[in-house]
Amino acid sequence: MKKLKLSTVLLALAAPLAAAVVSIIISSVAVLASKKSPFDAYKTMWDFGTTSGSLMQVLNTATPYYIAAVAIAITFRAGLFNIGVEGQLRLGAIFGAYFGAKFILPPVLHVIAIMVIAMTIGGLWAAIAGYLKVKRGVSEVISTIMLNSLAGGLSSYLLANYFVDRTTDSNNMSTKTLPKSGQFPNLMPLLNKFGVADQPGGGVYGMLVFAIALGFVFWFVINRTRFGFELRASGSNPIAARFSGVNSRRMTFVAMALSGAVAGLAGLPAVLGDTHAFNMGFRTGIGFSAIAVALLGRNNPVGMGLSALLFGFLEVSSRSLELIDIAPETYVIMQGSILLSSVIAYEVVRRYKITLQSKELAKAVVA
Amino acid sequence: MKTKALKFLRYATMLVFVLTVIRQITGASDLTSVGTASAALLLSVPIVLAGLGGLFSERSGVVNIGLEGMMVMGAWAGGMIGTKHGPWIGLIAAIIFGAVGALVHAIATITFGVDHVVSGVAINIIAMGLVRYLSTILYKSGAWQGPSQSPDVNSIGTNSLPILSGGQYFGWKSPDLLGSLAEKHWFFISDIAAILRGITGDLSYVTVIAMAMVPLSLFVLWKTAFGLRLRSAGEAPIAAESLGVNVYAMKYAGVLISGALAGLGGGFLAIVAANHYQENQVAGRGYIGLAALLFGNYRPGGILMGAGLFGFADALQLRDSASVHALILLIVVVLLALVVRDVRKGKIIKAGATFIFAGLSLWYFLAVKELPGQLVTMTPYIATLLIMSLASQRLRMPAADGIPYRRGGLR
After folding, report:
1. If you write DSSP's letter for every residue of B104-128 in order, what string do you get?
2. Radius of gyration of chain A from its Cα atoms, rounded to whole angstroms
3. How far is CA B306 from its chain centroid?
4. How far apart are the CA of A89 and the nearest CA of chain B, in angstroms?
5. Does residue B63 fall inside a structural domain?
6. pTM reported for the whole predicted model
7. Which of A344, A351, A358 to mutate to test the interface with B (most CBs of B within 10 A)?
8. Percent of chain A predicted with pLDDT > 90
9. A185 CB-contact burial (10 Å; exposed 0-12 / middle 13-18 / buried 19+)
10. A153–B374 C-beta distance less than 8 A
11. Nearest C-alpha of chain B: how many angstroms from A110?
12. Whole-number mean pLDDT of chain B?
């Protein structure tokens, strides 16, 4: 019995380890291709990435990734694939920022109100895909991608024509700045109390706490509630789910809308915590990186947290590569190779486990 | 087959007639101009190639969301190699790069049994990152002017059909019947002539090759032993294996051909549709190709039709926004046709809802003089969504499409 336990632990570790080795080899080759030493590259990245200023940026990068990854995981558990997170979070952010600056509420309530707006918009946008899937049989993969492109055009149209704040004259079009009550407080004052010194360009988004809470809520709802059970059931076996009384079409729609609502929040960490407005510099690509984060983390709240941190770390630390004349875009190669090799490694391990089980079963039957 | 072709011709004529009437009403003369038809063809080609790519892959039972990434690889390689070694070598490089992307997809999905959509999305993310990385290196080495654009590629020659569209053969300039007919401004007749002139005149040789892929795919997949085996791998892999078909090999072939076609589509974008590679050049055309595949119900002819619609929407968007504005009127007409159909079927509530939609569209058409630029660029994506949701979704997809297969029926 003890031996079996050891092997399960080893197997659980095997996949990420193998993936890490393969991806290090691939990224080393990429660095070598530009005639530079991979060891220098890794060392520079590590030295730069582990300074406390960088670590704060890692957390800030990882927070939106994590929220968006949770949104994607909701659809994965329901047997769907929401690729439209990018568009949902963009629209959520711009509507939240615009309408959030229109009214004044007491501090906490104001932030909640902005979140509700962002969730509503993100949810409605994703609900289009859910509706088309349920009513018209349109694949949600294609419709969410089209909706992404639409959201990109729509948000720049709205910003340029209706949402832009004309009182400030700057080249960077932006919505009106949120009042103090609508800003999410930074964690920095709290960290100062624990002896962490201020860093230039530092500070940690307060939404980090929210993201962690969201991860817990996600775990609880999916694994411990009837709703979560029905969601998973309609995802893993829609026919069986229907016969046990789950309306799997309704679950599809709900999962899509819920995912969009959560995705609508993923643009807020920067809007509420840093820029306090939606402007042209709004980060693009969060939604796509989040797909990788969700896949790497296997839709598990802790796993997704770790992979969000890993992606954030690679992104922030690779900026230092510029110093030794290596393209900082190397991090994309690293993220990509980690993603693909881990997806393959998980599958190989899963198959190996099945073979192992059937062998053990055969042994038990013979004995 | 013959009745199908006739039916298609009838619908096409009806569409052109409606467009002509709308052109007459709105004065958006680009709706049926030679230039629009020609641009529509040019923009359909990458979508046709992507769609055919999807066809080969999905007929062998592998869902290929990675088409987008393979097109990106193809476009990049077309620009990179094309600037150095000329456009034809560039196209070959595009094909090879697309196939390399497909090889990764094949290894992940066929050999290791990874979920097809997951692997495809991973490939898209990786391809975009890889291309950005390589472009940055080229930019830093001084070979490129910027990290997001390749230097120009020499263009590939064009020609036209003889007699009808004024092609030049061996120094002989043939008459341009359709062209002169198009300039007569005869209601409807000139419109048809202009559209035909657009799709038969000034064709790039690559366009001709790409369009030849449609009948070629039909032949390969439905008239050869290889095609039968490939399709059997997508319909019933276990049965196929029991009859001695090497299912893995068929799936590999399907996915590799898929990547090669998608890569050619990307290379076409870089070398023929533009004259250099540019970041975000593919802009979702791989996905639109997949939409065309679904619209065409996994048949080459259907893909061609779907790609034509998307290409038309894209061409209007690029040429002028007045036509896109006029296109709203087309939507009104289509919606009204749906209302009539629903009323005949007795679905009064649905007809009412559609009627309200049609009314709103008409109101928007009358209220807005000109569409803003950011909205006009969204046309192809809106068209994709609309066409996908209006088209009947009674698809007959390959029975084992998207299901990871393992020899011996293991899981």
Report:
1. HHHIIIIIS---HHHHHHHHHHHHH
2. 22
3. 7
4. 18
5. yes
6. 0.90
7. A344
8. 50
9. middle
10. yes
11. 31
12. 86
B179 and B185 in contact (C-beta within 8 Å)? no
Provide the domain count of chain B: 1
Residue B195: CB partners within 8 Å, gap ≥ 6?
B16, B32, B34, B37
Nearest to B287 among A142, A327, A339 (CB): A142
Counting runs of H as helices and runs of E as strands, what totals does chain B give?
A: 17, 4
- Of the candidates A146, A156, A327, the beta carbon closest to that of B385 is on A146
Structure-token pair, residue B282: 């593919």
Task: Average the pLDDT over A300-314 and give the result.
Answer: 94
B283 domain residue, yes or no: yes
Q: Is residue B59 part of a domain?
A: yes
Does any CB of chain A come closer than 8 Å to the CB of residue B119?
A: yes
From B128, B136, B290, residue closest to A142, measured CB to CB: B290
Phi first, then psi, for residue B157 (nearest 5°) are -65, 160
* B402 Cβ under 8 Å from any chain A Cβ: no
Is the CB of residue B329 less than 8 Å away from at least one CB of chain A? no
User: Does B246 touch chain A if contact means CB atoms closer than 8 Å?
Assistant: no
Query: Can you tell me the distance from the alpha carbon of A72 to that of A59, in angstroms, rounded to the nearest whole number?
Result: 20
Tens digit of pLDDT for each residue in A115-142? 999 999 999 999 999 999 998 888 898 8
pLDDT at A359 (0 to 100):
87
Contact A347 B385 (CB under 8 A): no
Query: What are the tens digits of pLDDT across the range A78-108?
Result: 999 999 999 999 999 999 999 999 988 998 8
Residue B210 lies in a domain: yes
Q: Does B331 touch chain A (CB under 8 A)?
A: no
Residue B286: exposure state from Cβ atoms within 10 A (0-12, 13-18, ≥19): buried
CA dihedral B129→B133→B139→B141, nearest 10 degrees, is -160
Residue B158's beta-bridge partner residues?
B204
For residue B294, the enclosing domain spans: 33-160+202-298+395-409
User: Any chain B CB within 8 A of the CB of A352?
Assistant: no
The answer to whether residue A47 neighbours chain B at the CB level (below 8 Å) is no
Distance from CA of B237 to the nearest CA of A (A): 19
Which range of A95-104, B191-200, B340-349, B376-385 scores highest in mean pLDDT? It is A95-104
Beta bridge partners of B203: B159
Cα A307 → chain centroid: 9
Mean pLDDT, rounded, for A308-317:
94
| Tens-digit pLDDT profile for residues A150-207 | 999 999 999 988 898 877 666 778 899 999 888 988 888 888 888 777 777 668 999 9
Look up residue A367 and give its DSSP letter. Answer: -
> Tokens 């080229």 map to which residue?
B138
With b for 16 or more beta-carbon neighbours within 10 A and e for fewer, the B378-407 pattern comes to bbbbbbbbebbbebebeeebbebbbebbee
CA quadruple A24, A26, A28, A30: dihedral sign: negative
Closest CA to B295 of B384, B367, B219: B384
Crossing angle of the two packed helices B87-106 and B247-268, in degrees rounded to 10: 140
